[in-house]
Design brief:
heterodimer, A: about 325 residues, 2 strands, B: mainly alpha, two-stranded antiparallel ribbon, about 75% helix, globular
């Protein structure tokens, strides 16, 4: 649970480097693999899955940042939707180039976040979940009812790609991958820094953190705004990839999926939502015939995780690693296992 | 149609909606008040009640008066399995219950989709006639819904106020530890409360789907209704659920008839949002 916090004492400068190294190596290998495999396999469908995984991970990290402050937000998909619709309308109705439209979309999402965050974040955890749940529904209803702007339940179709160069699935995979990696790196740096430690302090004991001089509400609002920006990034990149917008993809089930990714993977470390996103993204492809089965499995996972294993896969993995270590330590000491 | 007829129909519609809503909300608030569990899967139990009625009345042709309570009994009895498997891990753990039961809601909804497919069905209504009272024309099925729901609510009230188990449940809701110290067996009370809550929800679900439409996706609406009513009236407060149900039923009937369903939905959501922010304990609840 404390895996992301590394406290270094003065004079111990080199030790944190050595602690970091195996993780660094693994990360570099994984990233290299992510860049290389499309060159080895020519599978447009795999590029599609890979692109969606990159996008899901951005959304999952968005929810993750808020979870690290101790709140579970059920409306991040709604912020995604706000950014998507804004950028698509900017491109199709105002004729703006994608970069500007995307920025507009992200700004729209962040603005909305800054407006509602100070109100919502004052509430205790259980009320926050309810409020974000309702808010997400309200935003979705706005998408459905405001037909003149959003096209209503039928949505908007024939959205153009961002640039000519990324028109193909192959190119878009790298586009999305690079953007996702930037977001993940930024978040990782954020969480490893003092800000990240402050977040953990707020989550563990809010009143103690406040007594230590941390402006709790301000912190939470800023993190919420960053999370909305991330959701906005996923929204603008996804809309121009799928090229079709409909309100249903920004409703409660979409938000719940992002939460599921966090819960399955592990809520308290950044690797969790990434693992969860991979899980949630790949599972439907393995269960092609039985699409409904995936949701049933997610539901079961949610139940089991909430009842017994809040740390998700990451906690399960670390518990297994502890178990293995204990067994080996026992043997080498000559004790009976 | 005279204006009196329109008002009378809006009134009767409002009363029928209120009755159904109160039943749904009572189940929800029982689970919250006694077990501190936020049942996000509540709508799915209503939906299952609808399917149960569909099969008992529509396919097996059991007379309607018997089919309605039997359908609810069936759902409640089968759900006791879920109580042991799922719900018991979340008692007194509100936050975990929210997300865990969201998971249960997904499991129930998509399992139902697997079994029954997404297309909409109609639960046949035994009452397609109308009643004329003077100038006013009223649909019989709404009146019957009001009567059935009123009977259920009356029985519930009598149970909660005059039976040993009802009093135990209320004691457990007020202060669990003191109730346990008085010798009240919480496991049994929990099971009983769960059974009653699901019974009422399934009953309401049967009536609701008979009035509107039946499909595995139909559970979302009763969940929203339960939320709105319970937050309005105060989470954990039974008279609050009754008051909230009345308010929502009439507001929806009125707004829905004169301004359309969208306005009605926005208003109810907006009011509930504002309530949670400024007065989370609702109209009749207690600030925690």
């Amino acid at each position: 649970m404390y895996a992301d916090v590394r406290v270094s004492l003065p004079g111990e400068r080199s030790s944190w480097l050595s602690l970091l190294r195996p993780r660094l190596v693994i990360s570099v290998l994984v990233i290299a693999a992510l860049f290389i495999w499309p060159l080895l396999f020519n599978e447009p469908f795999a590029y599609y899955v890979g692109t969606m995984l990159s996008l899901y991970s951005i959304g999952a990290v968005s929810v993750h940042l808020i979870i690290r402050t101790g709140h579970v937000s059920m409306c991040q998909a709604a912020f995604m939707g706000v950014a998507s619709y804004s950028s698509v309308l900017a491109v199709m109705s105002l004729g703006l180039p994608w970069i500007i439209a995307a920025l507009l979309g992200i700004v729209a999402s962040v603005l909305l976040g800054i407006i509602v965050a100070p109100i919502f974040l004052r509430l205790a955890g259980k009320y926050f979940v309810l409020v974000t749940f309702l808010f997400g529904e309200i935003i979705r209803m706005v998408f459905v009812e405001w037909t003149s702007v959003t096209g209503g339940a039928n949505g908007i179709s024939n959205i153009p790609p961002p640039f000519e160069a990324v028109g193909s699935k192959f190119a878009y995979y790298y586009f999305a991958l690079v953007i996702a990696l930037c977001c993940i790196f930024m978040s990782a740096r954020l969480l490893r820094s003092e800000i990240g430690q402050t977040l953990d302090a707020i989550r563990e004991d809010e009143r103690l953190a406040a007594c230590s001089g941390i402006p709790v509400l301000r912190f939470k609002v800023i993190i919420f705004a960053i999370a909305c920006a991330l959701a906005g990034v996923e929204g603008v990149v996804q809309a121009h990839y799928v090229r079709y917008l409909e309100p249903q993809s920004f409703g409660v089930i979409a938000s719940l999926n992002l939460v599921v990714m966090n819960v399955i993977g592990g809520m308290y470390s950044l690797v969790g939502p990434l693992l969860g996103a991979a899980f949630v993204g790949i599972l439907p492809e393995l269960l092609r015939q039985y699409v409904h089965l995936q949701h049933i499995l997610f539901g079961v996972f949610l139940i089991v995780a909430m009842a017994a294993l809040p740390g998700g896969l990451v906690e399960a993995a670390s518990r297994m690693a502890d178990l293995v270590k204990k067994t080996f330590r026992g043997r080498s000491n000559g004790r009976h296992a | 149609m005279t204006s009196l007829t329109i008002w009378a129909q809006v009134f009767v519609n409002g009363l029928a909606l209120s009755a159904i809503y109160i039943l749904i909300a009572l189940g929800f608030t029982l689970l919250f008040g006694i077990m501190r569990v936020v049942n996000f899967a509540h709508g799915e139990f209503a939906m299952l009640g609808g399917f149960s009625l569909y099969y008992l009345y529509g396919k097996l042709n059991i007379p309607w008066v018997a089919a309605v309570p039997l359908a609810a009994l069936l759902v409640a009895a089968v759900s006791l399995v879920l109580e042991r498997l799922v719900f018991q891990w979340f008692y007194q753990r509100m936050f975990q219950s929210m997300i865990g039961l969201m998971g249960l809601s997904m499991v129930l909804m998509f399992s139902s989709l697997l079994v029954w497919d997404a297309y909409e069905r109609n639960v046949p209504s035994p009452f397609s006639s109308i009643i004329e009272v003077g100038d006013v024309v009223l649909p019989t099925d709404r009146l019957v819904v009001i009567v059935v729901a009123a009977i259920a609510l009356l029985l519930f009230y009598l149970f909660m106020h005059y039976s040993r188990y009802g009093l135990s449940m209320r004691a457990a809701a007020i202060d669990l530890e003191v109730a346990q110290a008085q010798g009240i067996e919480t496991t049994r009370i929990y099971k009983l409360a769960f059974f009653i809550a699901i019974f009422m929800t399934a009953l309401a679900g049967g009536l609701y789907t008979q009035t509107y439409v039946l499909s595995p996706l139909v559970g979302e609406r009763p969940l929203m209704i339960a939320f709105i009513v319970v937050v309005l009236g105060g989470m954990g407060s039974i008279p609050g659920a009754a008051l909230g149900g009345l308010i929502l039923g009439f507001v929806e009937s009125f707004l829905g008839t004169f301004y359309g369903a969208a306005v009605s939905a926005f208003v109810s959501f907006g009011v509930v949002l504002a309530l949670i922010i400024f007065r989370p304990w609702g109209l009749l609840g207690k600030p925690e």
